[in-house]
Amino acid sequence: MIEKIVKKWWFYAICLVLLFIPSIVQKPVSPEKASQVVQEVMQNPLIYKIKEFFPIAKVWIIFLLIGGLIWKNNFKKIFTVSIIILSTFIMIFQNVSLNTSYGYAILLGNILLQFIVIVSWIYENKVRKNDFSKPRFRSWNVLLFILAFIAFWMPTLDGKMYFSVKDLIMNESGLTYCMVTPIIISILLLYYPHINKITLRITSFVGFLFGILNMITWFILNASFWWMGILHIPLLIISCVGLVLSKKHANDFI
Q1: Which residues, 6+ apart, have CB-to-CB distance to 194 below 8 Å?
Q2: Alpha-carbon distance 195 to 129, whole Å?
Q3: Mind giving me the DSSP string for 21-71?
Q4: Closest CA to 113 of 245, 247, 239
Q5: Can you spell out the DSSP letters for 175-209?
Q6: Is 1 helix (H, G, I), strand (E, B) or coil?
Q7: Residue 248 has what pLDDT?
Q8: Please, are residues 208 and 181 in contact by the beta-carbon 8 Å criterion?
Q9: What does the mean pLDDT of the chain come to?
Q10: CA distance linking residue 189 with residue 210, whole number of Å
Q11: What sign results for the dihedral spanned by CA atoms 84, 6, 214, 145?
Q12: pLDDT (tens digit, 9 = 90+) per residue, 41-83?
């Protein structure tokens, strides 16, 4: 079923429409203030109320990378279930805020899009197409991991440039969709082409949509915070690579 759906043009059109679904807010908001609601939720989501989970998420992500290399296919179920749990946690706690100018706010479009990604990973948990037996550190994989490392570090403070070694483990990037997605895709591509192309395609396409949206947000609509745009470039580039490779056959790969 899901294999047929992702081949239809309307699936991607629906994903694009979901991106612009209005947020659920406690107080009425005029359409021109919709972007402000999104910005306020991103600045003060529920994840900031559980900061003790920040280092746990970071260590967990490192474990997901190392686990596949050590235990190979014995680890792939743990990997998939971990992605489902982590993505669900992010979907809920990053897209809801109780403290905006309009009372509580829920970014419904973001939640629905990220739920589609979670469904693709539930599908992978059922079919088990990912093969972790032969990781390949090709030159382009290394470049992607360098970009993913920037996302993992997320060297910023209040949207401005800020480099701190402490943030490698202690900041919120491990519970941030746009920073976690580049890492997940990079790990998958380490085992390309022996991976679930459907899961890769959906994860990459949604990542691509968020990447484009963030380029517009931080380089055009809110250019004073251009550094946030820089930090979202890994999401855009890695998602594009994942999207292209998800449509290639193993025999096409060089």
Answers
A1: 130, 131, 133, 134, 250
A2: 6
A3: PPPEESS---GGGHHHHHHHHHHS-GGGG-TTHHHHHHHHHHHHHHHHHHH
A4: 239
A5: G-HHHHHHHHHHHHHTTTTSS-HHHHHHHHHHHHH
A6: coil
A7: 76
A8: no
A9: 95
A10: 20
A11: positive
A12: 999 999 999 999 999 999 999 999 999 999 999 999 999 999 9
**∠ CA(230), CA(154), CA(147), 5° rounding?**
60
Q: Which helix (H) or strand (E) holds 161?
A: strand 160-161
Please list, residue by residue across 22-47, b when 16 or more beta carbons sit within 10 angstroms of its beta carbon and e when fewer do.
ebebeeebeeeeeeebbbbbbeebbb
Dihedral angle, C-alpha 38, 43, 49, 54, nearest 10 °: 110
Hey, what are 200's tokens? Answer: 């890769």
Compute the average pLDDT of residues 162-170: 96
76-93 and 53-71 are packed helices; what angle lies between their axes, rounded to 10 degrees?
160
Q: Report the C-alpha gap between 210 and 208 in whole angstroms.
A: 5
Phi, psi of 161 (to 5 degrees): -65, 125
> Residue 100 forms beta bridges with which residues?
103
